[in-house]
Amino acid sequence: MKLKTVAIVAAALALAVGMTACGGAASTAASSTASSAAASSEAASSEVVSSEAEATSAEYTVYNTTGSKVTELYLYDAGSEDKGENLAGEGLADGESIVITRDVEADKQADVVYVLEFTTEDGNTQSFDTLHYEVAPISLKSVDAAAGATAIAFEAPQK
Description:
31% of the residues lie in helices and 30% in strands. By secondary structure, the chain is an alpha+beta fold. It has a domain at 58-141: Sandwich (Immunoglobulin-like), CATH 2.60.40.
């Protein structure tokens, strides 16, 4: 988007310089029009950049589909030793869900990697180590169901 805006501004300026070289009143009008177009293009570019820089929240709707009560649930920065608070609180019964939100500065969102870790009442702990900054439904799987690639699925449970 920025490259396109820069190309438009450059073309408008080149047109203005070319028209000025031809001389006369027409070139002055063209130069004025090109300058005006460049200014409005630059303003539009600033507007786009500022809207792209607006922070959005990451939101994870976590569904317990383990068949057991989830007694511990953490979402923390990958590489951190501090897991933060237990998001399961008093426990998350099978079939229940919780919405977890995170806010990070817009320019840092692409670099965020979280670990989602949970423990069920039978003592099984599982984790997903490469959760990115996004809006996503997440279904926690039982140990048996997680025998595949991951301990979670990026979907809401079927009703």
